[in-house]
Amino acid sequence: MPNLRVALVGCGYWGQNLLRNFSEVEGAEVTMVCDFDANILARAKRRYPTIQTTQSYNEVLASSNVDAVVVATPVSTHYQYARQALQADKHVLVEKPLAQSTTQIMDLIELSERMGKTLMVDHTFLYTGAVRRMKAMVDSGEIGQLLYFDSVRISLGLVQSDINVLWDLGPHDLSIMDHLCQREPVAISATGVKHLHTPYENIAYVTIQFPGNLIAHLHLNWLAPVKVRRTLVGGSKKMIVYDDMENSEKIKVYDKGIVQTHDPDRRQKMLTGYRNGDMTAPQLETTEALRAMAREFVCSIAEQRPPLTDGHAGYRVVRMLEAAQRSIEENGRLVVLKEMPMPMSTPRIPMVTEIGVNLPGVAAAD
After folding, report:
1. Pair 213, 158 in one domain
2. In angstroms, rounded to a whole number, what is the distance separating the alpha carbons of residues 151 and 219?
3. I need a labelling partner for 240 at 20 to 30 A (CA). Which of 36, 91, 211, 229 fits?
């Protein structure tokens, strides 16, 4: 079967990583790179002399040598670029978040289905060995009933020029949470503040409520003196600490918990005990997440199946971002989520582990 011919649109900070991985993944070849910056194109050409470079997105859309478009441009352009690519009969992969609104994403999903093309969002962390192992533990029942999801994603920058910290960092943790919990949230509240001379929040705290007693909390910050990427997943049997800054032992599983029993002689008295078992650090797959993500895009197209992070996954994340942003703008008001106007997702298939109108100039990657 011939290789999937890929065009990368936006070859800045993140686009360079995508270019490297799509150039090396089996079943794909990068045939074009598009960016508004001539210096960025020259750098890509030096490293990959056989690729065609262009500053015109229309040239990408019109090319018969392109089967799929990978969009790694500022968030404000995601919807327009993705829509034009689908209309040009191309498969599309878009950097997170998939678009700026659920209305835009619904349009992209409907268009992709009508055109018979794959629409995928790069929720990178779902392709890490750590998150995949956590998912297996949750699905198997090893950690018991989910009680909470708590994440901290803070550092000094990178401050974005077109979105706030919620829309920049939030998709990572929201996509992990959505993937692990697979439950529809019922309400979201959030607070955020602006300390920089920009119209965007640089610190945000988000609380997400689910049916029953499952709760989630996100701490997002561009102004921290240290870089922290830590997630806690609490279960009734075991608890997981995922620290992405660890070189080894990124996941630690604690056989710890609280046990409560009633005193039969005193009905009103609750006895509390603490279970302190072993800590284990499971061995994780070491495949680079972006390589696994690129492979998933290629394989889902070849096998004509929905990718792990399809348009519906992108929709669910942006739906939560919209609600959190609304809460921030209304001083932390609890935003109750209405029933989703579309299915939670298309059927989920396990990820494969082997194997035109002129728009403004294409800017460097987000």
Report:
1. yes
2. 6
3. 211
Q: For 173-219, how does the pLDDT look when each residue is reduced to its tens digit (9 = 90+)?
A: 999 999 999 999 999 999 999 998 889 999 999 999 999 999 999 99
Residue type, 311: G
Evaluate whether residue 275 is within a structural domain: yes
Of 280, 296, 320, the domain-final residue = 280
Largest CA-CA distance found in the chain, in angstroms, rounded: 81
102 plus 231 within the same structural domain: no
pLDDT tens digits, one per residue of 240-279? 999 999 998 999 999 987 776 766 666 566 667 777 888 9
Amino acid, single-letter form, for residue 128? T
Q: How many C-beta atoms surround the C-beta of residue 148 within 10 A?
A: 15
pLDDT at 83 over 90: yes
Structural domain count of the chain: 2
**Rounded to an integer, what distance in angstroms lies between the CA atom of residue 317 and that of residue 211?**
18
Question: Are both 98 and 204 inside the same structural domain?
Answer: no
In a domain, 243, yes or no: yes
Beta strands 91-95; 68-71: pairing state: parallel
pLDDT at 360 over 70: no
The 3-class secondary structure across 223-256, one letter per residue, is: EEEEEEEEEEEEECCCEEEEECCCCCCCEEEEEE
Six-digit token pair at 131?
Answer: 């998150």
Q: Is 277 helix (H, G, I), strand (E, B) or coil?
A: strand
| Boundaries of domain holding 242 | 126-280
Q: Which amino acid, residue 267?
A: R
Backbone phi, psi, residue 144, to 5°: 85, -155
Prediction pTM value: 0.90
Q: Which amino acid is at 59?
A: E
How far apart CA 191 and CA 330 sit, in angstroms, is 9
Residue pointed to by tokens 């987000």: 366
- For residue 303, what pLDDT is reported? 97
Q: Which residues contact 329 (CB under 8 A, 6 or more apart)?
A: none
218 and 98 together in one domain:
no
362 in a domain, yes or no?
no
